[in-house]
Amino acid sequence: MNVGMVSSAATPPATVSHGVRLGYAVGSFCTANFTAIPGLLLLYYMTNVLAVPAVLAGLVLFLPKAWDLLVNPLVGRWSDRTSSRWGPRRPWLLAGAAVLPVSFAAMFSGPPLTGIPAAVFVGVAFLFASTGYALYEVPYKAMPAEMTGDYHERTSLLQWRMIFVAVSVALSGVVAPMLAGDSADGYRLMGITFAAILLTAMIGSFLGTARAPFIGRQRSDGSLRSQLAAVRTSRPFLWLLGLSSAQNLAAGVLLAGAPYFAAYVLHDTAATSTLFAALVGPMLVTMPLWVRLARRLDKRGAMILAGSLFLVGASLLIATPMFGSLYAHLAVVSIGLGYAGLQLLQFSMLADVIAHDSTVSGERRGGVFTGLWTAVENAVSALGATVYGAVLATGGFISSNPENPVAQPDSAHTAVILGVTFVPALMSLAAVLMTLRYDLTADRLAALADDDTASGGTAPGDTSEAGGTTA
Question: Which stretches are transmembrane (predicted)?
Answer without folding.
Answer: 22-44, 50-71, 92-110, 116-136, 157-180, 192-216, 237-258, 270-290, 302-320, 326-345, 366-391, 411-436
